[in-house]
TrEMBL record:
GO terms for cellular component: periplasmic space. SUPFAM superfamilies: Periplasmic binding protein-like II. The keyword Signal applies. It holds the Pfam family NMT1. Keywords: Signal. This is ABC transporter substrate-binding protein. The keyword RNA-binding does not apply. One of its GO terms (biological process) is alkanesulfonate transmembrane transport. It is found in: Periplasm. Its main location: periplasm. Belongs to the bacterial solute-binding protein SsuA/TauA family. Residues 32-277 form the Solute-binding protein family 3/N-terminal domain. Residues 1-24 form the signal peptide.
């Protein structure tokens, strides 16, 4: 092979590695996509920001508009209301919405552990253990979000009711830090980088931590799916190639993240994500890195765990006949992996 042909071959390989997805799938039914998320700067949703800033949406032929809401419940509302096409949100919502007769389907798993932390606020000084949460003010990203679900499950597992604690939405960024520092809440359920920032400042004491496999097992008794890409079944039916392109983007991102160093990640992110302390953000990322899915695949075990947890505190789920096979699919992930892992 001549030097010229080697260069040409390399160019073809590079093209396939970046923009070959759209070509591989043919013409997309829909290229302008509105994505809703509840707390984009949170490490829970890091894959979305990485996909955007690495140019993977553009490579796949997608023009994406991201709307960031105060919590996952609000991004779900955007999907239901029609102002969003797809959501990066908690897998739990796929089960809850099926119970309400409004099915949604997860097509890529971004997080295999929740990465959510329950902590007491030291300034309040009223919560020494999870048993002290009754009657206390607990900050969550937003009522009805995955942070709220963790609180509900912890309360019910201890024989209390979700309404035994007063839930206050504090967001997932500077507003959460401010609520802690002002002593507006007695405890907080939140994610990195908020948790790492508050811990470094000496403002909280961790009571339960699902950033690791052990911590997730301690809280939930098994693996627990976290952030996913989900959408309505009608969107999938009407836009199968676009759905595949979206799955391609996130699978590609998960594979990149699985191999990336902390420095690799920091170089991609905007400065405002670091909350004024880049080294602390780096630590927070390293705490959270085990939470990410290595390849985007779902497991039946994880889905079973989520259903068990939701049944414990959500009467609508407890009384419904849930078909977990309709809450997620690995079809699009497997197709993406066949091409990406060649």
């Amino acid at each position: 092979m001549t030097l010229k042909s080697l260069i040409a071959a390399a160019a073809v390989a590079l093209t396939l590695g970046t923009s070959g997805f759209a070509a591989a799938q043919g013409k997309l039914e829909k290229t302008d996509i509105k994505i809703a998320v509840g707390g984009k700067p949170l490490l829970y949703y890091l894959p979305l920001t990485l996909a955007e800033r690495l140019g993977y949406f553009k490579d796949a032929g997608l023009n994406v508009e991201v709307s960031d809401f105060g919590g996952g419940a609000k991004s779900l509302q955007a999907l239901v209301g029609g102002s969003a096409d797809v959501v990066t949100g908690a897998y739990d919502h796929t089960i809850q919405m099926q119970a309400k007769g409004q099915p949604i389907v997860a097509v890529t798993q971004l997080g295999r552990y929740p990465g959510i932390v329950l902590a007491s606020v030291n300034k309040s000084g009223t919560v020494k253990s999870v048993m002290d949460l009754k009657g206390k003010k607990v900050g969550v990203t937003a009522p009805g979000s995955s942070t709220n679900f963790m609180l509900n499950y912890v309360l019910t597992s201890l024989g209390m009711k979700p309404e035994d604690a007063s839930v206050i939405g504090v967001g997932g960024g500077p507003s959460a830090i401010a609520a802690i520092k002002r002593g507006e809440i007695d405890a907080i359920v939140n994610l990195d980088p908020v948790i790492s920032q508050a811990q470094a400042d000496g403002d909280i004491t961790i009571l339960a931590d699902t950033r690791t496999e052990k911590g997730t097992m301690d809280v939930y008794g098994g693996p627990y799916p976290a952030a996913v890409l989900y959408m309505k079944p009608d969107f999938i039916k009407e836009n199968p190639k676009t759905t595949q392109a979206l799955a391609d983007v996130f699978v590609r991102t998960m594979l990149w993240l699985n191999k990336a160093s902390t420095d690799d990640v920091l170089k991609v992110l905007p400065e405002e994500y670091f909350l004024g302390n880049k080294s602390l953000y780096a630590q927070a990322f390293e705490h959270s890195k085990p939470t990410y899915s290595p390849d985007g695949r779902f497991t039946q075990e994880g889905a079973d765990a989520a259903l068990k947890v939701l049944k414990a505190f959500d009467p609508a789920v407890a009384s419904a006949s849930i078909d977990l096979s309709k809450t997620y699919t690995n079809q699009y992930v497997e197709d993406a992996l066949k091409r990406l892992q060649k």
